[in-house]
Amino acid sequence: MLTNFLKRTILIGATVFVSVCSQFQGNYYQKQQYQSSGDCPQPNGTFPTSTCDGYIQCINGIPEEKLCPDGLLFNPESGPRSFPCQYPVDVDCTGRERTQPPQATDECPHQFGYYKIGDEQNCGQFKNCVDGRSFIFDCPEGLAWNSASYRCDWPDQVSDCNAEAYLGFTCPSDARQFGFGAEEYRFFRSPNDCQRYFICIDSKPRLYNCGEGKAFNDLSNTCDDPENVTGCALPQNSQFRGSSKLAQYYNKNLYKN
Ligand SMILES: *[C@@H]1O[C@H](CO)[C@@H](O)[C@H](O)[C@H]1NC(C)=O
Ligand SMILES: *[C@@H]1O[C@H](CO)[C@@H](O)[C@H](O)[C@H]1NC(C)=O
Q1: Residue of the CA atom closest to atom 7 of ligand 1
Q2: Nearest-5° angle of CA 188, CA 194, CA 199?
Q3: 237 and 170 fall within a common domain
Q4: H-type helices in 54-168, by residue range?
Q5: Is residue 100 part of a domain?
Q6: Could you say which residues form the signal peptide (predicted)?
Q7: Among 50, 68, 96, 199, which residue's Cβ finds the most Cβ atoms within 10 Å?
Q8: How does the average pLDDT of the chain come out, rounded?
């Protein structure tokens, strides 16, 4: 649910800033790239060219060559009233793969877009680039930025994230796979934090949080009152394993009773 919310937030944000920059018109490399700019298939509308970020805008049968802001791509499926340049995840470039050269800045690989920050051990942050300036966001706890789907995702689903290193938990080798029978589930209380627990799926951990004032009871495999969970009355005198940002976060927020 959080990820859906996040995605929606991103899309809303995108609509706002995209309409702000819709006057933007690249003039770079336009000349020889377009082949069929002479005709308008219909009097009004936007139409694809041989490149993925160029398009023809027709108004009353008069064509004009346009170029999407760097990092965005022309979506022929966009509705007549929406700005036709969209994020790569929403656009199919088959047959028109070429784009303008990237206009990278110190902060951003393209002027616009969402990009991963960090390495495979630190997967939880991403940045939104707007006009070449970056704005940094955190995924909800335990989730990792997935550049392929443009959303925060389970770290085991993100190809350039090492779920064990990021979450600071390695699934025991006898952990069974997630399944439908009760026997197949394996839960593991976080070694140093009673509030959190892991589920191992295909031997990769996913982090869950019981929430404030609850502790994971590994006898009943449920979130319970801390009083009912042995060893959880006080934070243990040890640090969450791992050196990732998330581990540091845990160390600052150990379960307080
Ligand atoms: C095209 O757009 C113009 C201006 O927005 C409008 O006046 C005209 O009626 C439209 N033509 C068609 C065929 O929809
Ligand atoms: C502990 O567990 C018992 C039953 O197992 C339950 O009735 C009780 O509400 C739980 N919480 C506390 C604080 O005892």
Answers
A1: 60
A2: 25
A3: yes
A4: 163-167
A5: no
A6: 1-22
A7: 68
A8: 79
Q: What is the mean pLDDT of residues 150-156?
A: 97
- Residue 74 belongs to a domain: yes
Q: What is the pLDDT of residue 39?
A: 84
Query: Quick one: tokens of 219?
Result: 């006898």
Q: How far apart are CA 207 and CA 201, in angstroms?
A: 11
Domain of 71: which CATH number?
2.170.140
Q: What is the mean pLDDT of residues 116-123?
A: 96
Q: Which ligand is nearest to the CA of 230?
A: 2
96 within domain boundaries: no
Structure token pair of residue 217: 């009871």
Shortest-distance Cα residue to atom 2 of ligand 2: 228
Task: Give pTM, 2 decimals.
Answer: 0.71
Indicate which residue's Cα is closest to atom 3 of ligand 2: 228
137 half-sphere exposure, CB direction, 13 A CA radius:
21
User: Are 239 and 169 within one domain?
Assistant: yes
Statement to judge: residues 144 and 188 lie in one domain = no
Closest residue CA from atom 1 of ligand 2: 228
- Determine whether the shortest distance from the Cβ of 60 to ligand 1 is under 6 A: yes
